[in-house]
Amino acid sequence: MQSIGVIEAIYRYPVKSFQGERLSTVDIERYGLYGDRGYAFIDHTRSTDASRSNKKLNAKFVPKLLAYSSKYVADRSGNEFPPVQVTAPDGRVFQWGEELFEEIRAVVSPREISPQKYSPEHDDLLGVDEANILLATDVSLAELEKIIGVEADMRRFRPNFVIRYDEQRPFEEFDWIGKTVHIGDTKLEVYKKCHRCSMVNVDPDHNTVNPTFLKHIAKHLDACFGVYARVVRTGTITVDDPVYLSD
């Protein structure tokens, strides 16, 4: 195995398309990070036929969702995910309940939505659309900042793990596809580049939109930043854990 760096940051998103929480350690389950997108809203406006039913509300269509942040307020226990707390952009705090649901319905109107709470025993990806885990590196972000000409907060790209890379080789993670990343007792198989959408244009703190980000990523990186991985072996990952790569 080749040593490639250490875990610099861990991000989890309790509610899909809301801002998430930064962790020091996390359990990796078969679907990805424990509790990642454990809560979501179903967008019935997108359910125009049976093959497109059960579509999850996405900030790609409603960027204002990214002004809300979410976090778990208890440790894991039992057969349900812990209670979640949501903070509105004006500082109001909501629990997962009808008051929050009415708030979000007003934000996304005229879309018709309903709340969805997943279970740790769920067999699929919970509220994740496609992939278990998103990986990014600090050197790739630094190079992207040079390309765009402005500072970029990694939270724009909503990774689960940020790797502090040993080498100054930006975008080398694209070459990891088909390889295995080892972190602690966890094994992840990298299988796909992450094709970015307009969500990267939204500032995670101020909810302002700057189309420069996606424009440059599309022009210079074929609209990709970061890589997707699926879980091969479950375990626990902690900040500063060494990261290894194998064929």
From TrEMBL:
Pfam families: MOSC, MOSC_N. The lineage of its organism: Bacteria, Bacillati, Bacillota, Bacilli, Bacillales. It comes from Paenibacillus ehimensis. This is MOSC domain-containing protein. Residues 105-246 form the MOSC domain. PROSITE patterns: MOSC. It comes from the Bacteria.
